């Protein structure tokens, strides 16, 4: 069945749930800008908003027909746009939490390396990010900083023009190097 822009969002969503992927494409074209604005209003980060919208539609494309039918059965969708708003809001909040957790994990690791155990409160004077990062090679430092900013391995790989396996290796070696240096101090 040919999808048209004149179909309602509910009809398009039902067609998607019945296995017609092109219906999701029409919904994407119709809702993308509104969802981008909604996501951006929450996170105030243009790149994160774009990523969240793209990830949402990638997720929906990968759903099996059984999972799609659960959407209709569990939600009895009356307002498809409202349902998408809820999905993008949740995805954006998850992305923000994930980014915050990665930063906190990175800084706790730095505190541990410089003498704290991550459980005791350490004054900010005890922790010098530049001192910690100066112990790494330029590539390790760059990979660490991007990782701490919440970037995925593949995003770091694209930015540094290396493979994601190399990114993982750089981060792992950097951690090992910092642990060894901490033991020598």
TrEMBL record:
<dbReference type="GO" id="GO:0003677">
    <property type="term" value="F:DNA binding"/>
</dbReference>
<dbReference type="InterPro" id="IPR014284">
    <property type="entry name" value="RNA_pol_sigma-70_dom"/>
</dbReference>
<dbReference type="InterPro" id="IPR036388">
    <property type="entry name" value="WH-like_DNA-bd_sf"/>
</dbReference>
<dbReference type="GO" id="GO:0006352">
    <property type="term" value="P:DNA-templated transcription initiation"/>
</dbReference>
<dbReference type="InterPro" id="IPR039425">
    <property type="entry name" value="RNA_pol_sigma-70-like"/>
</dbReference>
<dbReference type="InterPro" id="IPR016032">
    <property type="entry name" value="Sig_transdc_resp-reg_C-effctor"/>
</dbReference>
<keyword id="KW-0731">Sigma factor</keyword>
<dbReference type="Pfam" id="PF08281">
    <property type="entry name" value="Sigma70_r4_2"/>
</dbReference>
<keyword id="KW-0804">Transcription</keyword>
<feature type="domain" description="HTH luxR-type">
    <location>
        <begin position="129"/>
        <end position="185"/>
    </location>
</feature>
<dbReference type="GO" id="GO:0016987">
    <property type="term" value="F:sigma factor activity"/>
</dbReference>
<dbReference type="InterPro" id="IPR013325">
    <property type="entry name" value="RNA_pol_sigma_r2"/>
</dbReference>
<keyword id="KW-0805">Transcription regulation</keyword>
<dbReference type="InterPro" id="IPR000792">
    <property type="entry name" value="Tscrpt_reg_LuxR_C"/>
</dbReference>
<protein>
    <submittedName>
        <fullName>RNA polymerase sigma factor, sigma-70 family</fullName>
    </submittedName>
</protein>
<dbReference type="InterPro" id="IPR013249">
    <property type="entry name" value="RNA_pol_sigma70_r4_t2"/>
</dbReference>
């Amino acid at each position: 069945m040919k999808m048209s822009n004149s179909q309602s969002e509910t009809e398009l969503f039902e067609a998607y749930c019945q296995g017609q992927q092109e219906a999701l494409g029409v919904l994407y074209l119709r809702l993308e800008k509104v969802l981008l604005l909604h996501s951006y209003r929450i996170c105030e980060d243009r790149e994160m908003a774009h990523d969240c919208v793209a990830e949402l539609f990638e997720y929906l494309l990968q759903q099996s027909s059984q999972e799609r039918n659960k959407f209709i059965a569990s939600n009895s969708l009356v307002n498809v746009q409202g349902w998408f708003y809820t999905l993008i809001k949740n995805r954006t909040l998850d992305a923000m939490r994930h980014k915050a957790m990665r930063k906190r994990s990175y800084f706790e690791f730095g505190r541990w390396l410089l003498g704290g155990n991550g459980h005791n409160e350490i004054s900010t004077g005890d922790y010098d990010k530049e001192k910690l990062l100066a112990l790494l090679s330029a590539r390790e430092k760059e990979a660490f900083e991007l990782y701490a900013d919440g970037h995925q391995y593949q995003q770091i790989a694209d930015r540094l023009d290396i493979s994601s396996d190399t990114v993982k290796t750089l981060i792992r070696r950097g951690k090992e190097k910092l642990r060894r240096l901490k033991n020598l101090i």
